[in-house]
Amino acid sequence: MFAALVALTITGSMPLSAADFARAEVRDTDGNIVGGVTAETTPSGTVLLTVSLTELPPGIHGAHIHETGDCSASDFSSAGGHVAGDAQHGVDSAEGPHPGDMPNITILEAGATQVEIFSDQLDIDRDILDDDGSAFVLHAGVDDYTSQPSGASGDRIACGEFSAE
Q1: What is the 3-state secondary structure (H, E, C) of 92-142?
Q2: What is the pTM of this model?
């Protein structure tokens, strides 16, 4: 009886599923850790992404969730394209946005930012922690929210592979 109560107490405080939370350690093109991203399913089912970055070029940068959890290529091309499903890129596209779309992220003059982003299109199990994983990618330029396939946001300057926690 005691063991059952202990097990219930321990499991009662744990997430219902490993797919309720994911974390990515973000690195720049030199391999330096420049921050992290967490993805958490809220009680409403919306995914909350918390992005904390530092030591990056100031300015406005496109950011997306990419379809493959692989940041091994020096230009991060190994992360593939965006998590897109059947939609096109961009909130200004009539056929968009797709699940991997995120708003632009502003890196302050000090090279850092912390931002929270809500997505009702992403699902942690289906999109972020699927069989080949996914990655958070920060681009060098501004996402114009229209151009296909990536909003003309330029080179990939930081990448983080999501994993379950």
Answers
A1: CCCCCCCCCECCCEEECCCCCEEEEEEECCCCHHHHHCCCCCCEEEEECCC
A2: 0.85
